[in-house]
Amino acid sequence: MKQTEFDLLIVGGGMVGASLAIALENSELTIGLIETHPLKSNSQPSYDDRGIALSYGSQRIFDSMGLWSDIAAYATPIKQIHISDRGRFGVTRLSADAEHVPALGQVLLARELGFQLNQRLQQQANLTLLCPAQVEKLNQHTDAVELTLNTGQHYSAKLVVAADGKNSTIRQLLGIGSWQQQYQQTALTANISTDKKHQGWAYERFTDTGPLALLPMSENRSSLVWTVKTGEEKALLALSDADFLQRLQQRFGYRAGRFVRVGQRHSHPLTLMQADMPIQHRIVFIGNAAHSLHPIAGQGFNLGLRDVAVLAELLHNEHDDCGNMQILHCYQQWREQDQDHVVKATDNLVKLFSNDIKMLGHLRGAGLAIMDNLPFAKHWLAQKSMGLGQKQPRLGRGMQL
Length: 401
Ligand SMILES: Cc1cc2nc3c(=O)[nH]c(=O)nc-3n(C[C@H](O)[C@H](O)[C@H](O)COP(=O)(O)OP(=O)(O)OC[C@H]3O[C@@H](n4cnc5c(N)ncnc54)[C@H](O)[C@@H]3O)c2cc1C
What we know:
Pathway: Cofactor biosynthesis; ubiquinone biosynthesis. With 401 residues, this protein is α+β, with helices and mostly antiparallel strands. The chain is built from 12 helices and 20 strands.
């Protein structure tokens, strides 16, 4: 049986798997990337029209990887964030000026990010693109993991990185369980034009049916993530553009101006998932394959990119055996706290802000108002949303590998 050997096989060429391959482009590792979809196709589900808010920390990681200069032209800076609770008096405002940073984050279309990542993958000398193809079988041996693809080809590697998304095939093949929260919520995404310039404002508005976020984008558009109870999205998807805009305006109010145009609408059912055992013999799970979040605070990809930055640092100079268990333990120890914290914080936020208990509503309003007057509390929240405040890998500190 003919088998091709690599140091590293990455399964999944979405945002996270692609970023890991690029982060390792100057290493001596031989890398194979297996992806279900052809890289040039528009069918890759994670590269749709959703707006991705990149934290300040993620921007720094991309900058250290030499990617930010390609991405910057498509990104819109977030200068301020306005957090409010519909029907309550309290608000909290965060600003880039107060944090002494040029922007709290940057927003770009997942499609445009995907295009830039795919361009870079195609120029990478130490990378073999194995797509379109899917993993069908996996065998763990002492010194390597062997993968069989639906194309009939066999590959082996010292380390397999599973970056194959929320419903990870690798997780299923290994029979690894996961902790899941079914929120019975669905996110409706669309790009919205307003009659007023957004001036870099991002809005997070909590409503009794779920949070509603508007992220600033180019040409006076904003990216909408509207969370509704599952089932309710059907009626919203079926509305005419004018009726949809009217319904949104009722829900959001006029703080961002009048909503005048809406692009294509998509829906995404929401669950929170954390894999039980993210490291295995010669296998590691990263990104959505390890933890998939509710988009309430726009943290999913940012968390996955921090997985990438740490793993790339640990693998970069590992020429002998990049799959040894010591490296994987080290990775797990480094990432555990940040992952657990973001998963729990996201879950708590969803539960706190997605219910209509009157007393809790008053407390939320008061909490937002108090926070707005406490600079240290706002600084803490801003640091968290910028992806700072934990032990930073080299790429997160602006250093190359
Ligand atoms: C509505 C919404 C808004 C969001 N907004 C934000 C935001 O503002 N900021 C933020 O940081 N995050 C955000 N996220 C989260 C972000 O989209 C995800 O965290 C990110 O897409 C995860 O990337 P990934 O590469 O880990 O997984 P995926 O994007 O799911 O990619 C997995 C890849 O693996 C491939 N694959 C799957 N199975 C196989 C197989 N067997 N063999 C080979 N390949 C396979 C798939 O084709 C895919 O390309 C949002 C998510 C949603 C739903």
